[in-house]
Amino acid sequence: MLKKYQSLFSICLVVMLFIIVGAAGCTPQEPAVQEPGGNGDEQQPVQQTEEKVVLKAVSFLEQTTREGQWFMKVIDAIHEEMGDKIEIDYLGGPDVIPGYEQVEALDKNTVDFIQMSFAWLQDRYPEAELAAVIADLSPAEQRSRGLNDFLNEGITASNTDAYFLGMCGLGYPITFYTTFEVSKIEDLKGKQARISPLHQIAAESLGMETMTTSPTEMYSSVERKIVDGYFWPAYISDYGLEEVTTCRLYPAFGGSDASLLINKTVWNSMSKELQEELQKTIDKALDNYYNIDVAEEVAKEEALLEANGIKTVVLPDDYREIQIDGYRQKAIQDLGARGEEFFDRFVK
Question: What CA–CA distance (Å, rounded) separates 292 from 294?
Fold first, then answer.
């Protein structure tokens, strides 16, 4: 009997041994670690790259104007400096979307990037009217005084989906050009002035009537004597106005308010690094245009105005101060302390 139990025990041990060995052979093994410098057959990690951002862009001005041209230089700089990351799809000027509709298009993200006048922001953003009196500061001076931050604070408060990226002066203040002779401030009272909405305060401060037209309609309104003069902050020869102008009046004020805005939702979707690179690229392009191109363009314009016999009439300083004071009073009335801060920081 004992031998029988010993035989059964031996058989059980053998069976258990086979089970254990078989199970061990089926256990998954840890993969062999490939040391650096191996045979190169191992799978390399996939490089994660940020997808290129494509921005649909429009301008409130035609490409043929000097203001429109600096926008194209900004676009060229973006493509040259960071074309592997951002592409600007320039759709066109006011022929594609009228200037007064471009802020709405930006806010709705129909377009992503625009060159526009603050005139078209006035119904959303009360501080926009002050853009007219920003001194003709260089883009670098604007940034050092905190203009970008100041304007973005106001745009954000207006619940407009936009972000301000920069503004470029053109070497000229906002100037009133006439079709009649002027010798004193009183000669302007009752005259009809073509304006942008930003210039209404200036004209009314001088006792003039106003009519708003697009830039492309200035020539016909002057030639047909519908208006007696016009305010303009840039090169009048872009519209052929040197042919129908008699005088320009100094001392003038402010400067061009042509500015760059991007849809804020699109801006916020970019990485911090991409935002910084885009801002630096735009800053550099605006600095280059202002410091290099503007002096040359102003010299050409001055020669053309002289050749066409346009007189520069220098009126008493009161002429400028009357206009500036009109904006100051309106700013303090509408904006209080923030309006006063604006004049302290950005108006010469």
Answer: 6
pLDDT tens digits, one per residue of 132-183? 888 778 899 999 999 999 999 999 999 999 999 999 878 889 999 999 999 9
Write the pLDDT tens digit of every residue in 265-320. Answer: 999 999 999 999 999 999 999 999 999 999 999 999 999 999 999 999 999 999 99
CATH topology of domain 53-171+256-306: D-Maltodextrin-Binding Protein; domain 2 (3.40.190)
Residue 71 has pLDDT above 70, yes or no: yes
Beta-carbon contacts of 121 under 8 Å, excluding residues fewer than 6 positions away, are: 103, 128, 155, 158, 160
Give the separation between CA 310 and CA 71, rounded to whole angstroms. 29
Nearest residue to 174 via CA among 217, 119, 216, 220: 119
The DSSP line for 213-240 is: --GGGHHHHHHTTS-SEEEESS-GGGGT
Nearest CA-CA partner of 120 in 153, 155, 95: 155
List, in sequence order, every residue forming a beta bridge with 116; answer none if it has no partner: 259
Whole-angstrom Cα distance, residue 179 to residue 126? 32
